[in-house]
Amino acid sequence: MRIVCKDVTAETLYDVLHDTSYRRKWDTNMIDTYDIGRLTANADVGYYSWKCPSPLKNRDFVTMRSWLPLGNDYLIINYSVKHPQHPPKKDYVRAVSLLTGYLIQSNGASCSTLYYLTQMDPKGSLPKWVVNRVSQFVAPKAMRRIYKASLKYPDWKRKHNPNLKPWMFPEQNALPCLSVSELTLQRADSLENIDESGLSEEKTHHSEDEET
Asked: In the structure, what pLDDT confidence band is assigned to residue 198 with cuts at 50, 70 and 90?
């Protein structure tokens, strides 16, 4: 997917995608997110969970994320890993990011383009209407939500630790150090497969915020 973000700089988009404190303000599908630890100056491991329409089970991820400024452009990528202290939870389906990435391209002083690409396995035998709904409606609305959040971010950040950006300044990163040896690649076939294929769309309660 791609969205052109007028009146938003590439650096602001980059900050919005990194700032977990601000994410709680705009990502209404999120249940929880937190950083687990850092691997290098530009790589860490984190947890993210999000709400699925009832009666589908909610999903969560543990991913290794890395990021890289490319001149005036920025790149963020992640994929799923296993961490011994963060196993699958009873009330969630552990989904798998095979490869997910954001590319932010600068289009001048006050305009940027956000590209989003993901290959993921939500696990479970999902009905076709769920896959269609996510690809046609939920994901594009999430992109627009990121854009709207980016327009408001500079004012919000001025009031909330304006100089704290550990993704830009590694010396500010207070996360515990992790070793790559603590992690293994999360393979989809090693996780439980929940059969949700029989759920009908009529009986599903959608989130009130599928959009604004």
From this structure: low
Positive or negative: CA dihedral 144, 150, 151, 156: positive
Distance separating alpha carbons of residues 77 and 190, to the nearest angstrom? 23
- Residue 141 clears pLDDT 80, i.e. is over it: yes
User: Structure tokens of 194?
Assistant: 């929940």
Q: At what angle do helices 139-158 and 10-18 cross, to 10 degrees?
A: 100
Is the distance from CB of 134 to CB of 3 less than 8 angstroms? no
Place of tokens 């950006």: 165
Domains, the chain: 2-188 (3.30.530.20)
- Residue-wise pLDDT tens digits, 53-87: 777 789 999 999 999 999 999 999 999 999 999 99
Instruction: Please determine, for residue 130, whether its predicted confidence score (pLDDT) is greater than 80.
Output: no
**Is residue 185 scored above 70 in pLDDT?**
yes
What CA–CA distance (Å, rounded) separates 83 from 4? 36
